[in-house]
Amino acid sequence: MLTHGISGAKSHPRVETPALLSLYQAGRLNLDELITTTYRFEDINEGCQDMKEAKNIRGMVIYTDADR
Q1: 46: buried, middle or exposed (CB in 10 Å: 19+, 13-18, 0-12)?
Q2: pLDDT 10s digits, 36-52
Q3: Alpha-carbon distances of 54 from 6, 33, 57, 59, rounded to whole Å
Q4: Which long-range contacts (C-beta less than 8 Å, at least 24 apart) are formed by 32-35?
Q5: CA-CA distance, 47 to 35, in Å (whole number)?
Q6: Residue 43 CB: number of other CB atoms within 10 A?
Q7: Does 23 or 66 have the greater pLDDT score?
Q8: What is the pLDDT of residue 57?
């Protein structure tokens, strides 16, 4: 499957996503430093509000088995 991003660039998610995950797991792609704030699942509304108020650029919601 070939997809087009906002910029019109072409990508192959079925190929590129596993490759990116492998790089991350090997410690060669540092995505953690891109996250500005983490939120627990029950605090998702706070994360959305922070985003609307420009307090958070790249928040991540941590979802665990306990949240099911």
Answers
A1: middle
A2: 999 999 999 999 999 99
A3: 22, 18, 7, 11
A4: 34/58, 35/59, 35/60
A5: 12
A6: 16
A7: 23
A8: 87
